[in-house]
Design brief:
Distance between the termini of chain B: 40 Å
Oligomer: heterodimer
Number of helices of chain A: 0
Number of helices of chain B: 0
Shape of chain A: globular
Structural class of chain B: mainly beta
Helix content of chain B: under 10%
Distance between the termini of chain A: 36 Å
Largest interface: A-B, 26 and 24 residues
Largest sheet of chain A: 7 strands, mixed
Largest sheet of chain B: 6 strands, mixed
Order of helices and strands of chain B: EEEEEEEEEEE
Number of strands of chain B: 11
Structural class of chain A: mainly beta
Number of strands of chain A: 11
């Protein structure tokens, strides 16, 4: 099993450009999450999904959109990138949010917005 | 009420020492307290987790101590090794399942 994979690993954007980050998991997990990690800020939840076709806002959703068209994929979109979105983005998945389930993280995407 | 406060931000210990990382939470609805370990360039990975019905949990050299009345929990690493050098995140969650993470502690274990 590959676990959780993220594409791309690195990306540089100019202000105003758009892009989509792809997350894929092969563990048949129901729940998927997008976090951003900034120095000294820990991990902050952007959006999450409790199942195929459903999404919900997390702690810092502004400027991002997500889609979960297939159970194994969770896409994070930036419609008009801003320098404040420079960060490392992590996708995670879990079998369920009930009963203390472990979240499995991908390797991250390092995004720089100039 | 959703914050999880973690300290210290960074920690340097000698090999064999016992680093201790502390976390405090406010929301009494939290009932799941995991610790994640992250090596440079990698995603976080679950290290150990505890529920509030026990005051301590050990897994190998890693121990969580939990104080429900004080709303605090801590990670102890016994006989620390240079390979334990990483960033450690505490987190707290409830039945909703979404975790609130602390800001992280960068641990360096010197040979």
């Amino acid at each position: 099993n590959a676990g959780v994979t993220q594409t791309p690993k690195f990306r540089v954007l100019k202000t105003g450009q758009s892009m989509t980050l792809l997350c894929a998991q092969d563990m048949n997990h129901e729940y998927m999450y997008w976090y951003r990690q900034d120095p000294g800020m820990g991990l902050r939840l952007i959006h999450y999904s409790v199942g195929e076709g459903t999404t919900a806002k997390g702690e810092v959703p502004d400027g991002y959109n997500v889609s979960r068209l297939k159970k194994q994929n969770f896409l994070l979109g930036l419609e008009s990138a801003a320098p404040s979105q420079t960060s490392v983005y992590f996708c995670a998945s879990s079998y369920s949010t009930a009963l203390y389930n472990e979240q499995f993280f991908g390797p991250g995407t390092r995004l720089t917005v100039l | 009420q959703q914050q999880v406060k973690q300290s210290p931000q960074s920690l340097i210990v000698q090999k064999g020492g016992i680093p201790i990382i502390n976390c405090a939470y406010e929301n009494t609805a939290f009932d799941y307290f995991p610790w994640y370990q992250q090596f440079p360039g990698k995603g976080p990975a679950l290290l150990i987790a505890i529920r509030p019905d026990v005051s301590e949990k050990k897994e190998g050299r890693f121990t969580i101590s939990f104080n429900k009345s004080a709303k605090q929990f801590s990670l102890h690493i016994m006989d620390s090794q240079p390979g334990d050098s990483a960033t450690y995140f505490c987190a707290a969650g409830g039945s909703q399942g979404n975790l609130i993470f602390g800001k992280g502690t960068k641990l360096s274990v010197k040979p």
